[in-house]
Protein 1
Amino acid sequence: MMTRRHPTHGRAVPSLRPRLLATACIAALMTQPAPAQDASAAPQQSSASSTTQPPTTTQSATPKDKRTANPDAASTLDAVIVTGIQGSIQNAIKAKQNSDNIIEAISAEDIGKLPDSSIAESLARLSGLATQRVDGRANQISIRGLSPDFAGTTLNGREQATIGENRGVDFDQYPSELISGAAVYKTPDASLIGQGLSGTVDLHTIKPLDLPKRAFAANLRGENNSNGSLNHGTGVGDTGHRASFSYIDQFFDHTLGLAVGFAQLDSPVQEKQYQAWWWSLNNGSQGAESNWGAPHTPGMPDNVISQEGMQLRAKSENQLRNGLMTVLEWAPNDNYHSTLDLYYSTFDQKTYLNGVQWSSSPYDNVSYNNVGYVPALPYPIVTTGHIDGLKSILQNDYTKERDRLFSAGWNNQYDFGNGWVITGDASYSSAKKRLHDAYLFAGLPGQATSSTDFATPEHEGFPDFRPGVNFADPSAMFFTDPNDYGYNGREEFDHQKDTIKAFRLEVSHPVGWIFSDVNVGVNYSDRRKTKQADVYFAWLNGNGSTADDYQPGFAAPIDPSYLRGTTDLSYGGIPGVVNYDVLRALAGQFYLTQRNGQADWSRNYSVREKVPVAYVKFNIDTTLGDVPLRGNVGVQAVRTDQSSEALQTNGDTLVGRISDGTRYTKVLPSLNLAAEIADKQFLRFGLAKTMARGRIDDEKVATSAGVALVNDGPAAGQVLWSGSGGNPKLKPYIAVGADLSWEKYFGTASYVAAAVFNKNLLNYIYNQTTLDYDFSRYVNDNPTLTPTSTRGSFTRPENGTGGKMQGLELSGAIEGGLIARALDGFGAQANFSLTNSTLPVSAVSSIPGSPSTLPGLSRKVANLALYYEKYGWSVRIAERYRSSFTGEAVALFDQLGYTRVLADKQTDFQLGYAFEHGTWDGLSILLQVNNLTNSPMKTEQISGLPNNVKVARPLEYDTFGRTVMFGVNYKL
């Protein structure tokens, strides 16, 4: 862990107790110098790597262990001594109450046992936090309505490299069994390195010297997915397991501590997918026939909305994750303390995604009969009928992903005994990703057509298609290009690496007056993220690969030795589709040609950020009259030196390499005040300027640019440059936030809190076109044209006008025994968040489907958990809700995009029994059901009809099944 700051907060420090402290601190904060702005603004990336952790109060195991720990850390001794659901709540509340900042916290119920099956699910139950589901699992976290890219994430106070293309951490990379707790900083302080614009999540591993004696814990759980096995023959079933063990010990009179933990996840994903491609009016005065000149659609009634294509697919994925954590802690005397943290994980995923799709627009020469529709506004919606003339496409996908995470940190602290404490921390984090994607097309030979009866829901839900051909019959399905896509398949190889090297040095010393002590520190981090993508098109043996010799109708039967069975699509009415080994078929019946396009070349790049940080933080410990007041005030100066290397293209043609970069400095003042206005009743105030560097794929210098002869307009006859790409000169997002929170604590695991916040985004990043861009560094790949000028138009991400966010957060927990003796053992937790935002229309990005409001923003987020814990029994049912939001999604081959995700509600259930006496003491059994109601993920699209009327219609409807886990835990 980063710093264990020795206690200097004591009330013995002389104090003048000024009654106008808050006013003075705010005035000092607001008179900080404005951020220095270089003429050449610079790119963005995350901050430093190891974060100072204020002291936590820990029950010393021996008189020698006089260290203090972080009040924000939910991984203290009590988290192990006081166990179970109430113990977890009690420790999290204690961290929240003792913190100088406004935070939320979670704590493990016991060693190796967070209250949920994943870290992200536990975090999503905190006030103001929400999760985005990936493959049905909570994976990324949004804080206060901002997307995951705006949140900082640290492990033991150190910034972590990420598997994704941007900055948001995938929390499923960190086994919940190896995490003892987490603190979410909603307000930062000057010593918080790697802080995010929306907040910072700090994950904690166990600290062995916090335990009074040796401990051992192991758990084993089997799991089953209710969706069953969808892709037969792939080896991915509907059962899996989780296993973990933790060993913690102390040696040499409790001066040396060791913690070792291992966790394995072998889990299936079985996902039923349905997607409506787009919606339109075909015939009639309002339709495509009259307004776009489209062909008439036989059999379709006039002025009715119909679905213009669909995709029905089944996904089977095996996830195998192994995580190993080691902590070595040494405190040989009262002066020196050293901690070495190591974490390594492997995450392997194999995905099989098979299904059928077709286009049924007026341009596809289809015809309808027996069409039925239901009344709706603004136009009736077609729900039943029969379609002829479909060119059905069978697409079989295979994806293999290998992720490797490594994190190491060595922290050393020395107390000179005269008030001076020095702390040094060195860390390294790396994330490596290798991705192999491939897919092939099949269908009826000779581009023959088929027909189907259909019944599609008016709103969200699965359809019922009854095709006239058996898609599971391998003798009828051939490798071919059924609808003239221009190729027979595709294969891609991606390699990505992200590394962060960091060093930090901090000194602290008592001060006096209204301050207990001061922390002065520096941090230096060096981050480098590189990505390479190589794309190949697949062509059937015997077929051509150019516009002159390629034959879309060319077909070849599927080699029987490649067949695996069938893919079950019965949930959509189709009994099944043929299933085969994509890689073997690709090697045996196809040949490849490299075919990187503009979008593929742009994903070959590197971004480097070197970030020195200096900070000073004064810790406040005084009174206002009779009111105890604590907190901190300080400032952080962040210098960023960013550079990027990438490829220049002209459309799909590779031209050469290009590089660019910039530097900038930002000054970030912060203030946190916590006044105990009554017994266990606090009023907190936070005011801070925060920053977050832009998306890494916005900051890359990858560019497509070229020259062309202008044929008309004022510039007719001139040869001008034009292009588009990333912007390595982006300045970061900057926000000024103010928070006010009231908290009342009572009982042992009860509290109520209300908070309001306002965050002014001083700028936002969006795409805009610069008409006077300097192309002097670019290569002209057209020797027949000489540009009239080195200036031209260029579209790229730029800093623009910001927006605003305001929010209300209500949270609380109650022990039933405080209400009535008969309710002893019962309890409840609840929270609700309401967030509003405004964002200029100009901030709309060019990424497909990007929002005009803040991405990831759910206006309403709520959680409710009811539990019972007594006599060894524990029962908990929890539900989380978030209203609709625009979330980031990764389409095929790592292409980024956005989609509108509709309101989501998920319910989880937990039942356990712990043997507390006798032979079975230390043993517990646990039943968990995640996604109890099989809640679907639903998205929608805004369809622009031919008459320019816009309607919201369903896009995706996916179900992941409920996951039932049953197992045993043993603690010694």
Protein 2
Amino acid sequence: MEPTPEQSPHHAYPDHWEADVVLRDGGTARIRPITTDDAERLVSFYEQVSDESKYYRFFAPYPRLSARDVHRFTHHDYVDRVGLAVTIGGEFIATVRYDRIDGQGRPASAPADEAEVAFLVQDAHQGRGVASALLEHIAAVARERGIRRFAAEVLPANNKMIKVFRDAGFTQQRSFEDGSVHLTLDLEPTAESLAVQRAREQRAEARSVQRLLAPGSVAVIGVGRAPGGVGRSVLRNLLGSGFTGRAYAVNTSFDAGTGRVEGVPAHRSVSEIGEQVDLAVVAVPADRVPAVVADCGESGVQGLVVLSAGYAERGAEGRERQRELVRQARSYGMRIIGPNAFGIINTAPEVRLNASLAPESPKAGRIGLFTQSGAIGIAVLAGLHRRSAGLSAFISAGNRADVSGNDFLQYWYEDPGTDVALLYLESLGNPRKFTRLARRTAAVKPVVVVKGARHSGTNPPGHAVPVSRIPDATVSALMRQAGVIRVDTVTEMVDVGVLLAGQPLPDGPRVAILGNSESLGLLTYDACLAEGLRPRPPRDLTTVASPQDFRNALAEALADRTCDAVIVTAIPWVGEDGEAETGDGEVLAAALREAAATGPAKPVAVVHVEMGGLAQALAAATSTAAPPAHRPSGPGPQAPSAAPGTPAPAASDGRAGAPGDPAPSTTRAPGHPAASPGRAPAAEGAPSSGRAPVSEAAPSPAPDAGRIPAYPAAERAVRALAEAVKYAQWRRQAATPGKVPEFLDDTIDEHGTAALIGRLLGPDPDPRGRPLTHDEACELLAGYGIAVRPALPAPDPEAAVAAAGQLGYPVALKTTAPHLRHRADLGGVRLDLAGENALRRAYDELTDLLGTPAELRPVVQAMAPRGVDTVVRASIDAAAGAVLSFGLAGAPSELLGDTAHRLVPATDRDAAELIRSIKAAPVLFGWRGSAPADTAALEELLLRVSRLVDDHPEVVSAALEPVVVATHGLTVLGASVRLAPPPARSDLGPRRLPSY
């Protein structure tokens, strides 16, 4: 909506304040500025507010708004007077307004930095978190306009509003004056306010997913009158899964007398149903979808699964159709899976939902699966079915215009029915948010990701999201930092998923190998070494070993305290007639399960070659009773807990609390990873889930408990186990996160550096930014305690000799031309020049060989102590955020891609891991008898660079090259810095859904 001409162009309608938000109950609403066109909406809204709420707003009976009131509340300058409204279906459900005031409470303009704020929420929508969302947005608007504090007068009886202010997490003061509570809020975000915001975001988005996965009623729209077609297939799949709710068939072409289709009520529209419909599955042509969405929205449908194609995957016209679909659905408070989706499945026994094109629902299990591709979804479902692995939920989101993998991470984080999250992603709409959510979720349960479209540099058709420019290797490193298990193929994803869902996490990398084939044992041993594990010599049971021999050997290996995991290798027995006896697979499986169930909790995997029935028998559910009391629990996935005293709500998937349902337990069934007593180790800054502590009642094992995964190749089993080992190590470290050392504060001038950056950028900076000169870069880095060794220009031999006299011999002569910078292999560097003659000779050689002094731009620099040449870089990617990188200097490291990466801000642990994670790290630690480098000084340098780019997002790139790390100390020989206006941060503002 545009403002009237009377408003100043300088105060034009701020469309960037518009936002879609998810409310506490999972529904959506739109927040936008109020305009002069909203007079009728405002009056209608006010008429629906109760007298009590009006009294709380105006401190007196106020039955209706006068014409003057309406004018005042709809005319704003968007600077000193701002009003926001929350709308659903185009109508107001809440408003908030601030007026800038001076120290005496009178209307004022800038530079006054305080404003009076007031809210009004329609009674029917109170308790949905509307006011909390409004406070986040109006506070962000106020900060943008230079307002630093809010003042509010609240009646003591208005407990709901007082609670909104109190729980926001802002620094605040309260006093009681003239019969009202006077509140003052400092609008500067705090760690507490950010944690509150993210906790509310998690609860709201998890609830929105729960409404999609556990509907009480489903309407399939587009069901054909004759058998066949997408709509009819989905309806049959829904009914075939045993859906426990109500189902309806909808098609505008049904005759008036059509009573039932496939045994369920048939209607020509959702509005004709006359009962609440929670979820609508849309399978009509794209041009008919808008009418269907309007029908659903007017009928109170909560969510849509849009199977229809013809959207962003079809080009520009389709992209605009997709944007309009999202706008229309959100205007009614609905969320969308799709369009171009394959569907959703929830195997919970009290739901049994199959609203997809998959003809059969997967078995119930502990794995949650999200894919952005229907074809990949089908492949993964088939792979899990072959392994007899069960799913808790399956989502194939298609173009994922609205609901994304981030939403399901929010849901799975506290879902007691999911122990492992598998995601196939082709694009990351919000990488910053993804890494934050993945880190928090990975602290309580494994997150396994396959990233498609890794090397194309573009998003797949239909995915209208920002494109990240960082290399795939960097993306992989950042996922690892967040605890994500990144694998390359869907086969590996299934391999890792079935191991993590059925086995406990290993305590370390020590692996015992046993079996009846020496060759297969050696292959497994070699694979373990290749994956960085520490295998023990394989134990050959010989080809005559019986199932009882396997059982005894496995029990012995599990009891061995020097062993963290066991891999069993098996080949068929050969009978007396020379034929393979393949029928003993079930007997062997029973022996292995028995040993695993009674021994200590360690992961077990089986590698088999043509063992008939073995894989299926091992995957069979085996545990029907409580686990043995002596079996200790290990570091398996844990469920998040709430603060003491938090009431236990119904589980987000509708399972917990249902009559007869087993309660989650802190004790683990054989082979099943479950929670330990107390709070699960969480990533730094992870908010409480709001869920009550889990019960300690005797458990019933989960569907995947006790399943021993079997693999047809040693490499696949070992790779899956290696991922589990690395993830378990990350989990242990995440329980005690790193920190930024306080000693940095004493040598950092944050405010002085900010002032310098302001001067360097100027009042009207170029959006493209500017590189700093050498002297400017040195001055900037010095503010953070980073000293760059001086380099003096040498435009001629005489200047070079003078510079060397100033610096002191020995010196280095280097070219700084862009095409020769840091390329010692091209001969642009001369080192250890001990005197004037050597310097002049080197100068002549350089200019004769490479070009004129004007082309080479030579400089003279004092020699640094000998050491290891390294490179430290930091850069900001608009999508992923600031990234800190480290590697050794030189062409080999660049050619091999031997560079490590971490997200900023980096902790002391991140810095230590960054140095040690490159393949060439041994060079820094005394390789081949050399003196170890001063890695402590290097870690400190990394932390300083991280702090610089974190404190000052205007530093969009910084490179220190080379950094010579000696036995004691280090020397920065070169530095380049680029400044630019900071890119917008979508992860620090108020909650909002993506808008593409």
Protein 3
Amino acid sequence: MPSRIRAADPASTRSNAIVRAAERADDRCGMFLLVDGLPGMGTTTLLRELAGLMERRYGWTAIHSRADRFEREEPYSFMERLFAGELAGGWAFEAQPDADPVELARECLNRILEDAPETGQAVIIDDAQWIDEASARILRYLLPRLIRRRTLIAFGARKPHERGSLGEYLERLSRDPNGGRIDLQPLTDQEIRAIAVSRFGTDIMRRNARALREATGGSLRHVDAFFDTLDPSEAAALHLVWDLPVRGPSPEDNPMLVQYRSLGPAARTAVEVVALAGSGIEAGALESVLARSGEESGLGDAIDRGVLRESGFGSRIAPHHELLVPAVRAMLAPERRRRLARDLAAVDGPRLDYLLAAAEELDAELLDRVVEHADAAVARGEIREADAVLRRALELAPEPNARAELLVRMDLLIRLAMAHLRAKTPFHLLDLLPEYARLPATGLRDALLVMIEAFRVDAPFPHERVARMTAEPAPDPDGRALQASLALLAVVRTLRSGDLSPLAERIERARRCFEAAPKDPGELRDPRLAGLVEPDAPLLDCYALASAPHRATKGAVARLIERTQALPEGPVKADALAAIAGTLAGSGAFARAAELAHDAMRIVDAGHAPWGLGTVLLVRAHSLVMLGRYQEARKVAGIMEERCEDALDVETRPLAAALRAFIGAGAGGEDLGPLLAQARRHREIEWESYAPDLAIIAECEAARADGDFEAVLRASEGPYVERIRNTRHGFLTYRAQALVRLGRLEDARRLINRLETWRGARWLECWGSLAWLRALLAAARDDRNSAIRHFEEAAAETAPPVPCALALLDYGEFLVAEERHDAARSALMRAAALLRSSGAERYLARVRGTMAALDAPRSTRDRLLDTLTSREREIAERLAEGESNRQIAEALVVSQATVRFHVSNVLRKLQVSSRGEAGSLLRGPAVSERSGR
């Protein structure tokens, strides 16, 4: 499964493009820029941003002009508009009907250059598609001659550009060495999700992004307007909402329809037919449909205006953009849609989507086609296709009683629910819950209602109802199979709750239901229930293990693995493997956890859908990180982002972002801000999950990599830290290190002693060993012998690789200060090898800097300076400038006690006794400026 790189926030991407264009224009004394795109894509906003930037940052004069659609037929009307403003000092442009265009253009050029400000001018022209032809001829003469004369000329124009138009010329000119272009495409699903992350620190589900994209035509302005309507509670729950209620513009305001509405009636008909046909239609069939409509063919006009396009060497006609299809369909009047669909069915064949679009009601024959098509789609695994057909059929029965009768006759709701349950995607059916409630009351219907509602993760699960439904064994095998499935689902939802106290009781109830459930699918009267439960599966034992890992013995885990591996390939086996793998990872057995999670991933790749798809991938990615396999872990985290939007374990999404942030902090190549913002959303999820402390550890790692130990302390304290129970307190390893670095040695000593009492149970050394912490503390206390002893103990370890490498790096720097250069070089080379093999290459800069200091001829002064940490060197340089402790504390946003500790270390390491002596030493030759540190 390939990983995917998350799209950047399009607003930032566009702003960065404008910044680059402005820099280029100033550097080259001018340029030509075309900003074009479909209507509503934000051309005007970007041009305003460009003008403001040229004025504020570079001191250029900005001159604005906009063409008017109603003046398009008036010769030279735009040139009159252009010169009526500040361009050429407000010179009054006049042109006689018989004037030579070239002479007019030359006079315009001379006037512009004579009055051009020395600082430069930015001429901003918007809506260039409405410029009259006479003005366009003058502009074609002017543009090549104005570029690079302290003039930036930026045009905004709508796409698609008509053949032979000014827009087509501007597009060609933008490819000139002195030209540039910003092409504003409709937003993609991923870009809309990136906007949500940028604005709210949370992702939205892909299906919601797709719905928002279709409703807004991919317009950044309309998407922003929708997000502006969300109140804080709605924004906070974005990542938990399966079906976002999209409040977009009306269909008539969809930017995809602007060009369509400019067409004549015949051309609009051609577009409507193509939209109803979907992705495209044979050109001959389209002409036949248009002929049946009794109208002239407007196909050529629609193609010339760029609303439709030819493909297959003209044999097929398709919409210019996929978003045109839902936009046109949404605004078609029902009667017109039915008439065009009937013509399509008569010419292009009786496709089911044509017949449904043409029908006024659902008759018996069409009903049979719907059932046949939906059943075939389910059999092929195309559940969304079956879902779409059902919904189109339901639209033909708007009256509730008629719909209920129809659904009973079709039995399709039951078929569809069972298919979605096998795929673990019942959230697609949440909006159909009223339809299910209207079905005749049966045990199957009642069970399906619960199973669908279970995917409302923002609502409580009906545990009491399930307890009543499973209290006594059902009299028939079908009922007992449903009871087992319901009891298992109650366990799954309990594991994703804030209260695990009822878990043992619910597991026992599920065991009883499993024991009573039929062992052979042949016992079932309804064969569709066969896939709901696995009576002999050890899944419940795995869940019990995962909920209380401290009670597990190695022998019990080994026996459970053996039972699980013997299961047939399927979703139950994947869930069981994930639960065991999570338990092993929680105990520090990351190699075995990675193997089992990989086995579970292989089952998922084969097409099976477990309840805990996100957990399968999260355990695998986390284990790979701890094994020092950063690049593999990054790929799995990327897969999580792509695959887990539909998973029930929604709590794994922010943790996937946390893992990506952790990897990025050590390896580089990620924008950590959005990832950390997503990770913080995990604090708002009320239930425990696998490794909930990953969100804290990611912030600690990012802060440590930046050398910001105050931020490490902030990340490792607070209500969320105190709330979580399923943790091995890896973040306290970071906290202890930060306390040492900040000179809070007594606090560090107390914390390290507490970690020693928790060692192997409540605290694992996978994020850093106790020996490493004790070595750092001893070195800070200038206890040389203890520091060496503890560093040697830490240096003897080899796993996990990255913490071991960082311990070696600290040891190497300590040995440099001790002037034991050979030993330092050995420790540093081992650290570099571990960091390279792990992929944590961001830390290599620190290794290289220390190694370079070893290899270069050093004066005594230089060697003393090399013993300082980056924060001590920063404080030392401020000492050299005569700053007081208070001034240093205010500048670095730390306490004065922290500054006093660092000053003491600086004086000791520089072997001086006063601030004045330190200043004299630091003001000697070869002291770098602070900006270079």
